[in-house]
Every structure is written in structure tokens, then in C-alpha cells.
Specification:
Helix 10 links the parallel strand 7 and strand 8. The strands form two sheets. This protein has a seven-stranded mixed sheet with strand order 6-2-1-7-8-10-9. Strands 3-5-4 form a three-stranded antiparallel sheet. It is about 40% helix and about 15% strand. The protein has two domains: about 20-80, no CATH class; about 95-305, Rossmann fold. The protein is built from twelve helices and ten strands. By secondary structure, the chain is an alpha/beta fold. The protein has helices at about 20-35, 40-55, 60-70, 70-80, 95-115, 130-145, 160-170, 180-190, 200-205, 245-255, 270-275, 300-305, and strands spanning about 120-125, 150-160, 170-175, 190, 195-200, 205-210, 230-235, 255-265, 280, 290. The structure holds S-adenosylmethionine. S-adenosylmethionine binds near residues 85, 158, 160 and 235.
Length: about 325
């Protein structure tokens, strides 16, 4: 591994990183620590490198790269800095309004006339659970409005055990409640001082589990047994990856969608997803897509005509 030393940090400024430096960080982490980060988007890696160089007051990015090679603790901090797990309840208001007013009522109504009757939802990259709980609250509202329970299952997965532990705990501080309506706060949280905890009737709706979207050996989370999801939310994680990995993740979630099922992504990911041949944008300007094949399974004969999904396990 060769570390060039011409990237000296000027006063109050880290120089713009070249592709060469990004390749060096990939090489350092691979050879010194046995970690693979080449799947991440190059500019994301570059920005993370700039940030840690500045935070550690390194004299140059090259000096920081040397430290990364020698200091396992700093290397772990750097690796951790690549796991961005920020999330919010009802994170994108427009997207959630479209889900609430159009997509979820349509899906619930379609379940009345087709089989299987259970609504299947996957929050892929769920972080501390806010996305899955937001959808669960909206569906609970719908069930209350029609005075009938909605058979449903929400599978929420993440590659981070730490994020999943928070999600399962389901307790959030006051700052996390910014986008939560007063009515939802009253109906779906129990309060203790500054802590807001998801009530048990909502907890029963969501199954959290560890799942790496890059796992090439499975088509969907083993906890869900099979794909056939009516709705998948895969928000704000695609843009951290290289284009070929983005495509791989999109192919996977697309295959896991039921015919005519919906995919929601982050706003900043809309342009990436819009290029996918099997998806069409249905609610611009929000990043809500539908699997192009409109056929919804009406009975077992229809189901038999379809190609089986690849096994989940
Ligand atoms: C920025 S958060 C977004 C959380 C939520 N989807 C949202 O939009 O608010 C990205 C999440 O994706 C998870 N993630 C990243 N790569 C993943 C992968 N390969 N498989 C599963 N989860 C992943 C991260 O651990 C993190 O919790």
C-alpha cells in the first residue's frame, strides 16, 4: 500500500479528495483490518474520510490514512461513521401523506377482494424503527376508521444490531417526537417523563430482525418466510452505495414485491430508482413506485401461474 504525502491540509480546510485517496482508504481497511468498504459510494467515502481527518486534527489526509492502518480503534470509529442510521417518524411528510391517503387505503381495499388477505409490508433498513412504527400507526388509524382490524404484518429489518435493539425497545425522547401528531402521541405512545414508548398493540404488528440487503444468498428476510410484499420501504440507504450495489438492492426489493406492489424510497434516491425497468413512478414528486406488472393474485390458480420466488432461506 502506498500513501502519497502531497495531500496536506491547508488551514481550516481539508483538500478535495481524489479517487486515488478513496482507493487508498479501501485498501487500508482491507489489508490492515480485513474489512470491505468498496461497496460504498466513492464521494460518501471521501466525505467520511475528510470528516474524520478534520475531527482527529490530522496534519494531512495521508497522515490520517496512516493512522487508520495502525490504530484499530480509530479504524473502528471510521467504519462506524459509515453506518448512518439517522431516521425520523413520518420522515418525508409528502410521502407519508400519499401513503396515508392513497396507497394504504388502496391496498387495504384490495385485500378485501383478493387472497392472501394479509397485508405484507417490509421496512428495509429500518434504523431505530421510526419508519415501521409510522406505517403501523397509519394502518391502525385505518382499522379504527373502518371499525375492523386489518390483518397485516410489518417486517422491519436492518444490518445493524445496535439500531435494531433501539427499534425493539421502541422508546424515544422528546426531540424524536417532532413530526408526530398530537393524536398519535396520545393513542400510540405511553409517556414516562421525557420518554415516549410505543404501546403494546402497535408492537404486536411489527417484527424486527437482522437482515443484510447485500446478502446474495437470500431473496428476502427469513423472518418473512417468503416475499410477496404489498409495500416495501427502502429509504435513505441506496445513495450510500456504488451504482452496481444500488442496482443489486433494487433488483432484490423489486423481486420481493407482489405484482402491482409499491416501493417507497428516499427523495434523494428517486432518480436512481426511476431508471429501474420494472418500476414506475406513481406519485411524483414523492418517491413512490409501483411494480410494473399490475396483476394481483386473486386466487390460487393465478398464484400457480406465476414463477415462484427464489427461496428466502
Ligand atoms: C439513514 S438510515 C435510514 C432509516 C430509514 N429507512 C429512514 O429513511 O429514515 C439507513 C439505515 O440503513 C441501514 N442499512 C445500510 N445498509 C444496509 C444493508 N446492506 N442491509 C440492511 N440495512 C442497511 C443502516 O444500518 C441504517 O440503519
Amino acid at each position: 500500500m502506498s500513501l502519497s504525502n502531497n495531500h496536506v491540509i491547508e488551514k481550516n480546510r481539508v483538500p478535495r479528495l481524489t479517487g486515488e485517496l478513496v482507493n487508498e482508504v479501501i485498501s487500508v481497511l482491507r489489508h490492515a483490518h480485513g474489512w470491505e468498504v468498496s461497496q460504498y459510494d466513492a464521494s460518501f467515502l471521501g466525505k467520511s474520510l475528510e470528516k474524520r481527518s478534520a475531527v482527529t486534527a490530522s496534519t494531512s489526509v495521508t497522515a490520517y490514512l496512516r493512522r487508520l492502518a495502525e490504530d484499530r480503534t480509530e479504524a473502528e470509529v471510521f467504519l462506524h461513521s459509515l453506518s448512518i442510521s439517522f431516521s425520523e417518524f413520518f420522515r418525508n411528510p409528502l410521502t407519508f401523506a400519499i401513503l396515508e391517503q392513497l396507497i394504504l387505503p388502496t391496498l387495504v381495499a384490495s385485500k378485501g377482494e383478493s387472497r392472501p388477505a394479509e397485508l405484507r409490508i417490509w421496512s428495509a433498513g429500518c434504523a431505530a424503527g421510526q419508519e415501521a412504527w409510522s406505517v403501523a400507526m397509519m394502518l391502525e388509524d385505518l382499522a379504527t376508521a373502518r371499525a375492523r382490524p386489518i390483518p397485516l404484518r410489518i417486517f422491519a429489518t436492518d444490518v445493524s444490531e445496535a439500531a435494531l435493539a433501539l427499534a425493539r425497545e421502541g422508546s424515544y425522547n422528546t426531540a424524536a417526537m417532532q413530526n408526530v401528531r398530537l393524536r398519535h402521541l396520545r393513542d400510540y405512545f405511553s409517556t414516562s417523563g421525557e420518554s415516549y414508548s410505543i404501546v403494546s398493540r402497535l408492537r404486536d404488528r411489527v417484527v424486527f430482525s437482522l437482515y443484510d440487503l447485500l446478502d446474495a444468498h437470500s431473496a428476502c428476510p427469513p423472518t418473512s418466510l417468503y416475499g410477496d410484499f404489498d409495500l416495501i420501504l427502502c429509504c435513505n440507504l441506496l445513495f450510500y452505495y456504488q451504482p452496481d450495489i444500488q442496482q443489486q438492492v433494487l433488483d432484490k426489493v423489486c423481486r420481493a414485491l407482489a405484482p402491482g406492489g409499491y416501493l417507497v424510497t428516499g427523495e434523494a434516491e428517486k432518480a436512481i430508482v426511476a431508471k429501474h425497468q420494472d418500476l414506475r413512478l406513481v406519485a411524483s414528486p414523492a418517491a413512490v413506485f409501483q411494480k410494473k406488472n399490475q396483476l394481483r393474485m386473486r386466487d390460487e390458480t393465478d398464484m400457480k401461474k406465476l414463477q415462484p420466488l427464489p427461496p428466502c432461506l
